[in-house]
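PROTEIN DESIGN WORKSHEET
SECTION A - STRUCTURE
LENGTH: 416
TOKENS:
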């Protein structure tokens, strides 16, 4: 009798097949779920720069170059034109206020002065003659009135006696009337003489007033021309260093032409050029610092010109306190112009990474120090040394700040 043999469910072959299939499935699941699929790059530690994230005092400032200039520069412009007759000083020397630098000649101006001076003499003589004639007329009136008063007194006496004699029938009516008419004529003559003298006096006074006004105008013109002649002497308006003298003896100078300038040596200022990007943030009173001869000195913006030329605008800065010894005109200073007050902020050192990331992400070093991973961040203000960190980093963390060239598409840097 035959016996049924049961077939084995799990053979060695099946176990091997199922085992390998399960291992493959687990590998696939691990690869998709647990495995690190990030892009990696092995880098040498010697080729990167690592910096620590700090929490400290942050101040936003920009570097600008400033040129040392005299605190005041006075232009020497010719007020009157003329020919240079004499040159007293050359450029580059110290002059005192009032020193004559150039002397000009102007024949037309000199002739005008002579004409006006002659006219003034003529008017002065005419005025004196008019006053003399007026005085003589007054004297003549007094003499005339004295004579008339004497004649009137005589005629009055004759008239009164003739009137009495006529009443007594001693003289004829004709003689009485003659005496009366002579008396009345003298009275009227005196009245007319007084009125005539008043008119003559008024005319003389008007003539004198007009002559005085004309003489005054002539004297004013004369003084103006005299001042113009004085302006032919070009003098130093302040004490300082005469930087240049543009002109030689015999050269023609036009009115308003610049012949040089004088620098006030009692102080200095610094003129700086700033990128127009910062125009809205620059104001009077803003401060900056610079290093010189082992010390740090402070400057303050006192004037903002505001006019943009070739993408730049200019400001004048003055020294706070004493001017450093050794500062010279034309010297260039590297100034740190402060744009904000000191604040507490998380910050990282500036580095070449910014050119690649634009400050949007950075490689953060793991605590083990073996690798660095990419992390999104947000940066704020900056100065020549640090970036302000607004989001993404904490003090004490370390970041890669060197160039990211070739790292743009990597998620992790593995150090070796």
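SECTION B - SEQUENCE
RESIDUE ASSIGNMENT:
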């Amino acid at each position: 009798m035959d016996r049924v043999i049961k077939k084995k469910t799990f053979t060695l072959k099946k176990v091997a097949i199922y085992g390998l299939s399960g291992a493959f499935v687990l590998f696939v699941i691990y690869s998709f779920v647990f495995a690190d699929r990030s892009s990696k790059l092995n880098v040498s530690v010697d080729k990167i720069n690592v910096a620590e994230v700090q929490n400290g005092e942050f101040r936003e400032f920009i570097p600008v170059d400033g040129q040392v200039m005299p605190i005041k520069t006075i232009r020497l412009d010719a007020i009157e034109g003329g020919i240079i007759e004499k040159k007293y000083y050359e450029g580059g020397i110290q002059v005192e206020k009032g020193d004559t630098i150039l002397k000009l000649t102007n024949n037309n101006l000199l002739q005008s002065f002579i004409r006006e001076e002659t006219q003034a003499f003529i008017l002065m003589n005419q005025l004196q003659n008019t006053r003399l004639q007026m005085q003589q007329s007054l004297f003549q009136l007094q003499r005339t009135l004295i004579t008339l008063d004497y004649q009137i007194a005589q005629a009055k006496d004759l008239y009164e006696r003739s009137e009495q004699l006529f009443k007594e029938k001693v003289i004829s009516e004709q003689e009485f009337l003659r005496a009366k008419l002579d008396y009345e004529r003298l009275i009227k003559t005196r009245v007319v003489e007084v009125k005539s003298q008043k008119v003559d006096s008024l005319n003389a006074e008007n003539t004198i007033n007009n002559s005085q006004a004309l003489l005054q105008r002539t004297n004013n013109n004369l003084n103006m021309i005299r001042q113009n002649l004085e302006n032919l002497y070009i003098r130093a308006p302040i004490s300082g260093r005469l930087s240049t003298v543009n002109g030689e003896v015999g050269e023609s100078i036009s009115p308003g032409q610049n012949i040089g300038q004088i620098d006030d040596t009692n102080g200095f200022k610094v003129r700086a050029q700033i990128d127009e990007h910062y125009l809205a943030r620059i104001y009077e009173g803003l401060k900056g610092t610079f290093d010189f001869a082992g010390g740090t000195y402070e400057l303050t913006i006192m004037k903002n010109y505001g006019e943009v030329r070739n993408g730049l605008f200019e400001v004048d800065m003055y020294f706070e306190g004493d001017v450093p010894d050794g500062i010279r005109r034309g010297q260039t200073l590297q100034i740190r112009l402060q744009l904000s007050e000191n604040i507490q902020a998380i910050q990282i050192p500036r580095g070449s990474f910014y050119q690649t990331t634009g400050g949007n992400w950075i490689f953060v070093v793991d605590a083990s120090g073996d690798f660095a991973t990419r992390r999104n961040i947000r940066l704020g203000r900056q100065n020549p040394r640090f970036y302000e960190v607004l989001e993404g980093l904490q003090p004490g963390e370390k970041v890669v700040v060197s160039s990211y060239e070739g790292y743009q598409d990597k998620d992790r840097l593995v150090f070796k």
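SECTION C - NOTES
The first helix runs from residue 12 to 34.
The chain is about 35% helix and 30% strand.
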